[in-house]
Amino acid sequence: MAQAGQRSSIPQSKDHLLRSYNKRLKDDVRSMLENFTEIIKLAKVEEVGQVSQQTQGEQDHNEMQVRAANIVRAGESLMTLVADIKQFLILNDFPSVNEAITKRSRYLKGVQTDIDVKLIQLRDDLTKDLYDIEEEYYSSRYK
């Protein structure tokens, strides 16, 4: 039920995009599994049929290459999907972005306060030292 409530708060375009990501994921994983299964089936040795063993071997080799290329393509598609999902989360995760901005703002205000305190202390120390130097200068016989 919590997921249904969460789904209703997601705009229609975002919900469609999430369904699209889910479909891409399932399709790519299914493609990888099917191609891998077929490669395993090709690896087993079969009895001699109508085609010579060398011809059958070449045919199997070519099919394995095509299926391996399909697995690589599905893997690349999954990597692209991961990048798309990361981008989606970065662009649409406003609460965490706002929280990060708030935390950073609090941290920087604390740093600013510390620096202000140190600057005031430095000003007070310089004022005191300048007063002592002026006192020494005006009371000196070399003026």
Give your account of this protein's structure.
- The structure is a single chain.
- The protein has 143 residues and is mainly alpha-helical.
- It folds into two domains: 1-92; 94-143.
- The protein contains four helices and no strands.
- It has helices spanning 2-9, 12-43, 53-92, 94-139.
- Helix 2 runs antiparallel to helix 3 (53-92).
Secondary structure topology:
Layout: H1 2-9, H2 12-43, H3 53-92, H4 94-139
Helix pairs in contact: 2-3
- Say what oligomer this is: single chain
Structural class: mainly alpha
The profile of the biggest β sheet is: none
- Counting structural domains, the number is 2
SSE ordering: HHHH
Spans of at least 5 consecutive residues whose pLDDT stays below 50 are 1-9
Q: Kindly state the number of beta strands.
A: 0
Rg over CA atoms: 36 Å
The global form is elongated
Q: How much helicity do the residues have?
A: over 70%
Q: Mean pLDDT, nearest integer?
A: 84
- Percentage of residues in DSSP E strands: under 5%
Total helices: the number is 4
Termini, distance in Å? 88 Å
Which characteristics define this entry?
single chain; 0% strand; mainly alpha; 4 helices; elongated; disordered N terminus
Structure summarized in a few sentences:
The protein is built from 4 helices and no strands.
